[in-house]
Amino acid sequence: MEGKELIYCGIDWAERTHDVALVDDSGQLLAKRHITDDAAGYKILLDLLAEYGDTEENPIPVAIETSRGLLVAVLRAGKRQVFAINPMAAARYRDRHSVSRKKSDPGDALVLANILRTDMHAHRPLPQDSDLARAVAVLARAQQDATWNRQQISNQLRSLLREYYPSALAAFESWRNGLCRPEAHELLKAAPTPTRAAQLTRTQLQAALKRAGRQRGISAEADRLRAVFRADWAHQPSLVEDALGKQMLALLVQLQAACTAADDLAKAVEEAFPQHPDAEIMLSFPGLGVQIGARVLAEIGDDRTRFADARGLKAYAGASPITRASGKKSSITRRWVKNDRLNHAGYLWAFSAITASPGAKAHYRRRRDDHGDWHAAAQRNLFNRMLGQLYHCLQHGQLFDEAVAFPSAGEALAA
Q1: Alpha-carbon gap, residue 257 to 259, rounded angstroms
Q2: Going edge to edge, which strands form the sheet with 62-64?
Q3: Is the pTM higher than 0.90?
Q4: 299 partner at 20 to 30 Å CA-CA among 30, 109, 161, 206?
């Protein structure tokens, strides 16, 4: 607003208390407060902002070193711009104000306020995503974390079984997601050691399969498992084998909890994501299902002004290459600074799109055969292209069209 003094706020947050600093456009410190992390502290903060001219129409911008938590949720109410400053960037700004390299919480709050005063144009405010998009983000990221945790524990269990119980790995090898299946869990609980597994009767094996929920082919599967467990396998000493069995049961409890968490969160995502207005557009893309689509939405949000163009989104996802040039030397490499969650979702998306879309498959083959890309590079290039198409469709409210997305796919497939 013309003629009005500009005020900037910086907050150095902590677990229980926060330091607040307000500066004007000349860098003069106007006020500082030490508030608690509770409703009373938040009220003191809002009252302080209101005292210095904060209104719903012209809120005071705030810089803070986190993008999550109740304090951020309170600050984001209304039209206020909240800037999540990277702690490493804040540390670099701190050196501009003190050569002695001293550090204090009130001083950091002042530094954050001055970051907005001098370089607000160089930092990006938190996107104004809808509540539904933020809810989907919570569920999608939690499901992604649960999936990664499940895989990590499954790998630990596999390594442990390889040490003393190879017959279990052989028995579950033909099953999809072998160690994560309830049949594997029931069998390992019934026989935590290979010695006890070899003693299982056909009736006991059938009962374990039924407890796991299996309904078909129980008799034949029990015979197969009995043959595998009773084959000739090397064994650890009995005392060591029993100890490893107890360790395995403890790890199995963790795996069962991780599997349950991943499945429950997947169901929650399946309920929440289709309710979002962007879900129809995202699900129209080949290879983009509910879970991967929810992860993409979680990272890009539904604020249409968040990215100035498709290139910004591609750089954010790490799909586009980066050029490094100095003097006579120039190199083009992949991006290492990126949104890792979105990049991981893009890898799965492109991998599925290759089989779901003739145009995507032709594009992938062209990158491999004509440009000499390795598999990962060709897949990343495909993700880069489809991410640009997704940006266009979301901006214009259009569904994916194979003929428009890959106009030369028919000719490429014919060739």
Answers
A1: 5
A2: 29-36, 17-24, 7-13, 62-64, 82-84
A3: no
A4: 109
